[in-house]
Amino acid sequence: MKSPPTGRHRGDQLYSGVLTLAGGLVFVLAGAVVAVAARIASPTLSGGVWRFLSGRVWDPVHQIFGALPFVYGTVVTSIIAAVVAAPVALGVALFVVEIAGPRSRTLIGFFIELLAAIPSVVYGLWGLVVLVPLLRQWIEPALSSTLGFLPLFRGPPLGLGYLAAGLLLAVMILPTITTVSIEVLRAVPSSLSEGALALGATRWEAIRMAILPFARRGLFGAVLLGLARAIGETMAVTMVIGNQASLGASLFQPGYTLPAVLANEFTEAAGPHLAALASLALVLLGVALSMSALARILLRLTGRRTESPDASAA
Amino acid sequence: MLASPAAHAELLLTGAGASFPYPLYARWFREFGKLRPEYHFNYQAIGSGGGVRQMTAGTVDFGASDLPLTDEERHAGLVDLPVVLGAIAIVYSGAPDGLKLDAVTLADVLLGRIRRWDDPRLVALNPELRLPAAPLVVVHRSDGSGSTLVLTDWLASASPHFAAEVGVGKSVRWPVGVGAKGNDAVTGVVSMIPHSLGYVELAYARQSRLPVAALRNVAGAWVRPTLAGIAAAASSVTMPDDFRATLTSAPSPEAYPLSAFTYLIIARHPQRSDKGRAILDFLWWALHDGQELAPGLDYAPLPSPLVPRVAAQLRSLSSGGPE
Predict the structure, then answer these.
(1) Residue partners of B137: CB distance under 8 A and separation at least 6
(2) ipTM of this predicted structure
(3) Is any Cβ of chain B less than 8 angstroms from the Cβ of A242?
(4) How much is the pTM?
């Protein structure tokens, strides 16, 4: 609907002006954040972006700054979180939408909201007091005695480390992925599953062949949202990851993430150290954007592969 | 301020900085508030570096730092005054009470050159203890901190390896171990992981009831962190007129080496504003009556010869520089 340029629609014009302003504010805010960070970061980044990104040493005293251990830690912990949380969240969402009665549905919905409302400090404390000792005494020794042939599960079980952070993040992003997945699954037209059931499909077959392919894109979006939260999570991760810049295949060893090092070192930093931290903030932004880009590409690739057999099966 | 008939105008004084003396400052604000109810304090324990930055930017009325100011910061119109002393304790778990450590051995532990409790060098220092045959887990501060600076300063002065590999700073690259954010997290992790060792401020060590190591000072004596040990360190160094002194090599045989002053920071010309004058009042009180509250919270009061010198500085500030 376009308003002709007459005085009669001044209200409309005002309204659309206000909305444009509100929309533009997003660009201004995002732009300002990036611009300020880039300005503080420029002494580090002018020394070579690639050298900064690939540097393995972070030594504020000798002013050697490399981002690789933090990027690695951020990617590893959020992938663990997504891999662990996504199947559980999908299961909960399918149960709520397809199987649960109205009473258990409200009950589960209530508990998911409760999980989402817990502050991250509380998650961190829970991680430190419950999860870490559990990992150290039971889970990590068990993993290394059964799956110890993989480099992932080697080394002394400390409890604190990548695995603890990843699992804690999994619990934290579970409500996000579940809530969005429920909405996505609700939006699937009921005629689809009814049709599948009418053709003699079992409930599982109806979910697998009619509902999941239809909701695939939305479910992927749900996992992406969870991943974004995992990448940015600071407080809880800092409490359980061990805060030691390291690179290595073992998930048992202490590590570090980008938000954690920012939270730890920003208050006392000055000069080149501050510039390096601002550069890490930009890297964090870059990691978040490229993880979501990568996920989108993955979605396209798998989409092509799965659509054809589905079509032939139908 | 507008001329108001009320003699006592309400005044909100905002401060920011070191978290280490915060428990004592909170007590001071409360006690001073009873004497002068018109003053209200709001202090944010955001870290020493943050406190100095906020003072330089003029966003707070006073700052607090675990380090003396640099020349550059002093030229920017700031004054720092030592107000009280604290200490850093080496705490550990899973090994018997009464551990002894000298700077070189502790440096090698933190460098990862000593990785087990039953290492011959730890055994040689502690022949009377039954040290566990277990790997030693180092726990350090992950956030930038004055404690880290005091510790690394002491270790680097004794161990050339430590000076070269780690150096001195508030945030350093620890070659081994796990990092925890803040004193409470370090005490938490040390008590949780058996056979670990970390460093925390004295008050946290006392509250956690973890065993505390005795350290060898420059006089060659073994000293545990106590208020007497801190006081001995503070009174055995000659304090320069700019109040910049390190206590890690204090000569007294009773001196605890990991002792340090903590400072309050004010603007160079406090007498020009109501808030500045209020802060001078508060500092005067803290320097005299306030010192008595320090030992109860595990801080050591300033040595008595130092108090008149800091007071003289305060007086010169309140009579004012060039108007």
Answers:
(1) A158, B177, B178, B193, B195, B196, B197
(2) 0.82
(3) yes
(4) 0.85
